[in-house]
């Protein structure tokens, strides 16, 4: 049975997916047992099922069809409120408020429209003193917006009756988000940049870690996160390169798709949810759950990784991502470096993809030991070279099989590997434009060569024609016939003299 509080949308169902994913479920599961929790906005049913046992959960949804769907699931301990946030009259009621979907889907056209700051004030009002607020804020200048082919201010879903895009009132930087929440009596105890999408992060990194942590490994993790999210999706440019470059250049927090803040209503008590420096959800194997990994620093300046549900810590290897080193060497046409990297890769980790290998000098190590094996890793790198618009040393080779054979030879392999499956990549318009530009340059060069050869052929034909004319002119004259007869007589005379010389003793 749902409770209507006013401002509900009776016929509208949310078109965009709700907030969820393995990391958000993992964090929600850290809330203490017995807590009263408000889920403000659409959240994934799996997250609600993870949170419900041992806790009193209230779901606030503006869409009546979505509220009815949640009520039909019949999760024990879950109460459903349907209506808009300004109609929520409960005060000092909840130990924790989770708005992991952000503040954009809490109001409806049936009631008052709250901006971001007013929304935070309402959420604070329903928190008990010392209560926990988990709030996601999307970054209007995040990588996910920079590669979006659509205009951010154009309404593309039914809930965008008030499209704001980059003109919204939410804080535009992580430090401003912390300052805004602190000014409202909600001091922030944890803050993390979220990749690759604000409502479905698979990588959470604190701003301090992005500044002082293992930059190369963090860039590789951000690259892997966006690679999984943008498979076969149309984009303006490959987000993998943009994400990795943003982290390595010190702009990871500024260009992250969103931020997750953990705040407490003053007076702040012991944090119920803490954020490690790095929290990552690895790819799930078939019929298995996602692997949750934490990265923490050690007193000696190193970093270790700890997998949830497993004992013991593993040191995080140092070094740069192999794929980036290979692409850099290819763009610079550094063939000796390419051969060294390819040979070391195929000797040390032949079944690891290039975006999962860290290189430190002559040492090759796995970034994610839980990632599935990739027997056609060399083919995948060859495909990246051909589809990424890179100016590699073998521009004339357009066939993937031939380029793979060349790379295999450079790596010292007797045979090239066989394809083991498709490699879903982002469908980047910039990469398509680069490929078209490269093809145009090749076509222009081919046309220039064809024009040169046509000119040379015409010149040779003209010279041959003049020679034929001269020969014809000479062959028809009296002098030419006399000279020809004299030459024949001289030849016969020479032959007779030669014969006599041979007969004489």
Automatic annotation (TrEMBL):
Segments forming a coiled coil: 429-456
This protein's UniProt keywords: Coiled coil, Methyltransferase, Transferase
InterPro entries: SAM-dependent_MTases_sf
GO molecular function: methyltransferase activity
Biological processes per GO annotation: methylation
Name of the protein: SAM-dependent methyltransferase
Protein's organism: Actinoplanes octamycinicus
Lineage per the UniProt record: Bacteria, Bacillati, Actinomycetota, Actinomycetes, Micromonosporales
């Amino acid at each position: 049975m749902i409770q209507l509080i006013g401002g509900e949308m009776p016929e509208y169902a949310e078109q965009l997916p709700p907030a969820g994913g393995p990391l958000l479920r993992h964090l929600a599961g850290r809330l203490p047992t017995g807590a009263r929790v408000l889920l403000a906005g659409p959240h994934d049913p799996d997250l609600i099922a993870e949170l419900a046992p041992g806790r009193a959960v209230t779901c606030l949804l503006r869409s009546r069809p979505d509220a009815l769907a949640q009520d039909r699931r019949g999760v024990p301990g879950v109460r459903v409120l349907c209506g808009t946030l300004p109609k929520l009259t409960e005060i000092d009621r909840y130990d924790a408020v989770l708005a992991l979907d952000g503040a954009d889907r809490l109001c409806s056209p049936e009631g008052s429209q709250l901006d971001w700051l007013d929304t935070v004030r309402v959420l604070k009002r329903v928190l008990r003193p010392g209560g926990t607020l988990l709030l996601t804020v999307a970054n209007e200048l995040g990588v996910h917006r920079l590669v979006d082919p659509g205009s951010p201010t154009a309404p593309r879903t039914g809930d965008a009756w008030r499209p704001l895009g980059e003109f919204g009132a939410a804080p535009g930087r992580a430090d401003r988000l912390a300052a805004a929440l602190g000014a409202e009596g909600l001091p922030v105890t944890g803050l993390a940049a979220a990749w690759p999408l604000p409502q479905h992060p698979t990588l959470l990194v604190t701003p301090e870690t992005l500044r002082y942590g293992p930059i190369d490994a963090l860039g590789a993790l951000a690259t892997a996160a966006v690679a999984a999210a943008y498979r076969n999706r149309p984009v303006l440019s490959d987000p993998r390169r943009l994400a990795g470059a943003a982290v390595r250049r010190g702009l990871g927090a500024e260009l992250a798709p969103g931020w997750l803040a953990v705040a407490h209503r003053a007076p702040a008590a012991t944090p119920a949810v803490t954020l490690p420096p790095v929290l990552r959800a690895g790819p799930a194997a078939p019929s298995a759950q996602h692997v949750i990994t934490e990265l923490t620093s050690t007193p000696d300046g190193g970093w270790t990784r700890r997998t949830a549900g497993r004992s013991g810590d593993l040191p995080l290897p140092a070094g740069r991502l192999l794929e980036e080193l290979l692409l850099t060497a290819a763009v610079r046409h550094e063939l000796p470096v390419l051969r060294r990297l390819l040979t070391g890769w195929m000797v040390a980790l032949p079944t690891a993809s290039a975006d999962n290998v860290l290189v430190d000098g002559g040492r090759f190590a796995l970034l994610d030991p839980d990632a599935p094996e990739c027997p056609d890793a060399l083919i995948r790198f060859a495909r990246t070279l051909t589809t990424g618009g890179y100016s590699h040393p073998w521009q004339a080779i357009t066939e993937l099989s031939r380029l793979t054979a060349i790379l295999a030879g450079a790596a010292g392999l007797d045979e090239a590997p066989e394809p083991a499956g498709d490699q879903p990549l982002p469908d980047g318009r910039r990469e398509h434009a680069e490929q078209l530009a490269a093809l145009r340059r090749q076509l222009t060069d081919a046309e220039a060569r064809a024009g040169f050869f046509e000119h040379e052929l015409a010149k040779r034909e003209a010279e041959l024609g003049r020679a034929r004319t001269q020969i014809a002119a000479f062959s028809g004259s009296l002098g030419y016939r006399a000279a020809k007869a004299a030459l024949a007589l001289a030849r016969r005379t020479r032959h007779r003299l030669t014969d006599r010389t041979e007969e004489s003793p």
